[in-house]
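Collaboration report, partner site 2.

Our partner group contributed sequences for two proteins of shared interest, and the home lab folded both. The records are reproduced in the order in which they were received, starting with the first partner submission.
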Amino acid sequence: MRTLRMLHHLVRADLLERIRRHSFLLILASAVFAGYLFVPPVDAGYRVLQVGTQRGIYDSAWIGLMFGLIAALHLPLAGFYLVKNAVERDRQTGVGQIIATTPTSKVVYVVGKWLSNLTVLALILSVMTAMAVVMQLLRAEDATVRPWVMVATIWLMGLPVLSLAAALAVLFECTPFLRGGFGNVVFFFLWLATLVAVLSGSIDVRTDLVRPTADPYGYTWQLADIQQQVLAADPDARVGSGLLMTGPDIEATFAWKGFGWKMGPLVQRMMWAGLALVIALFASIPFDR
């Protein structure tokens, strides 16, 4: 109970301080704007995701996937730089020296910072989820909101990756040579390399079919499911897919039923969240109390 109270106070104090910052509001506004861009009008000159010459109707499943892509692919990058200052702020303000004189252990401290980081990012994810409902009603191709389909996709895609970003922010701050600008550069290229490896390494270049993998984004399972649905309706359909495409033009739409989150994919998502906890715990090793 004592440890839980310490964690509660650490997370609460950090959260109250951060949500008052202009940087938090800026990232929040950027996430909302990205949500608007990721669900373009049907006559827009670009598409965020299409399969061959088809795209999904803007219903809860498809819009949930669009916002899940923002949460999993883009928000971790901005979120990392947003939250990578919790330990440094304690150093600069002298709070760290005060905490060092208390019974708070290094493990409790770094886990508290990880949970604080994650709470901030989860708040942004909550606002994005509300924005997803707004975009479905705004585009009005299908006005029937299915909350579970939408929320499950956004959070199961986004939260594990945001957990990793939150944990890496703590680890980088606790590791001397990753604490400053060099660490910021390292994370950017780590994010970019992971993104390229997942998006390109899971596609069969001969058939354009996606092989479901235990990717940190939870994306390949869903794209493979979409391709199979398209092929079931038309075995000769083109299934080559891409993000942020300007061509070829859309020739047809389809109603994607949404991905059924069965035990296998769910366990994989929980494993990535568990890895985030391991990283946060590991951060206590280089942390100089």
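Second partner submission, folded after the first:
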Amino acid sequence: MAVPPLRAIVDAGHDVAIVVSRADARRGRGGDLTPSPVKAAAIELGIPVSDVVDDVLTLDPPAELGVVVAFGRIIKPHVLAKLPMVNLHFSPLPRWRGAAPVERAILAGDDVTGVCVMDVEEGLDTGAVYRREEVAIGPDETADELRHRLVDVGTRLLVETLAQPLPTPAPQEGEPTYAAKIDPSELRIDWSRTPLEIHRLVRLGGAWTTHHGKRLKVWRTRIADDGGLELLEVQPEGRGRMPFRDWANGVRWQPGEPLGT
């Protein structure tokens, strides 16, 4: 999510002195160390990279502003005291402060979400807002699809905001809600829930159930004309994604046969 804003800031002519990203992680079967996507982009752009936030305070000349996008770590007060920062947050604050605003908006059945360019404070997404824009959520839109659209809108808002001196931000108004990180246990489908609730869960990505004791991921569903839930795309354990009909034919699944067993 941070790569498009980084590239856009550079393309707009801003001098990016350093990029702070998470340390390289071991990925794949070989366990090779792999940089984060934003670190890889920064290296390509010739920008120094660190995984230590305090390194932003050692720059000479000092940085004028920090830009935070999907960082996922608390920035400590002594850093904020020396370097003002703006954050690109993917919700209409104060609704959905926290780690998973896109997912929580879908689960809650929100019709509209948004993007805010906000001031970074010590509190969790409590800062005043410089710019905001609402974004409608499609009834079948997945979290990944919505996230891509929000990044496009947010990148444009961020570049427009940084093109001139920062205005006086507006305090957040309204009752805050909090977007806790999605726990893996939440992705197991509870077939006693309504079709609409299950459809929302599937749209997050990674929802799963079982069939004869084997895990079955459910990637696409839709609400049928009669209000029921239609399964469209699944992924059996150890195999790739496939149309639900192909899977059902292969295991001789019959309509009405319960899943989750």
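Feedback sent to the partner group on the second submission included the following. The chain has seven helices and 14 strands. The chain has a mean pLDDT of 95.
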